[in-house]
Amino acid sequence: MIVEPLLQGAGGMIVHPVEFLQRVRRLCSEYGVLLIADEVLTGFGRCGKMVACELAGVVPDLMCLSKGLPGGILPMGATVCTRQLHEAFVSADRSHTFYHGHSYTGNPIAAAAAVASLQIFEREPVFERINAIATIHCERLESIRNHPAVGDVRSIGTVAAVELRADDAGYFSKLKPMLYKFFLDAGVLLRPLGNVVYVMPPYAISSNDLHYIHDCIAKSLDL
Ligand SMILES: Cc1ncc(COP(=O)(O)O)c(C=O)c1O
Fold first, then answer.
1. Residue finishing a domain among 97, 123, 149
2. Which domain holds residue 215?
3. Quick one: average pLDDT of 179-193?
4. Based on the domain organization, do 48 and 104 belong to the same domain?
């Protein structure tokens, strides 16, 4: 069972309740199914905790990590698993080995970036920054929630999304190219998912810059 925990990203920035993930975990355990959490987008503080599963108190059997691992700066991914799964491949018999690798497995430059990024988590108040972003998102989304152009607003941690009303709602909505150009002309690079505008800023963003992005989104509602 593969899930994007708590937040379906490219699918439209859809947030689901923790109870959904908890129930999936229970069902997987009940039926002996491995639970794979795709934390590629949600990992490393994106949703407010180091990994999104933590918000639901859920431990998956396997976890996919990437984007935030090297701070989004170099390509690196990692798959981690429980000790129990790992031990299934530990044997003196080499045919039990999980033979697997990528061309750039363990790339030292990407690994150095990942170590540096993890050190920033240890040395700097990263979660304070994350909480500050989350607070601004919540305030700004509330202020546009009742605008007639807005169908829904949602946020989780540092991710904010505004779903615009559209006759052609979905990934191919005509609103996307129009909005993309509008934001770019204002100096902001946003990539709406069809009629869903989302903000997923680097944690180092200043509050002024973040407010400016929300100002642009608010203006786009009157296009
Ligand atoms: C949740 C999720 N999983 C996987 C991927 C793709 O990861 P990769 O580029 O490492 O294959 C993405 C990319 O945007 C993603 O958002």
1. 123
2. 126-220
3. 98
4. yes
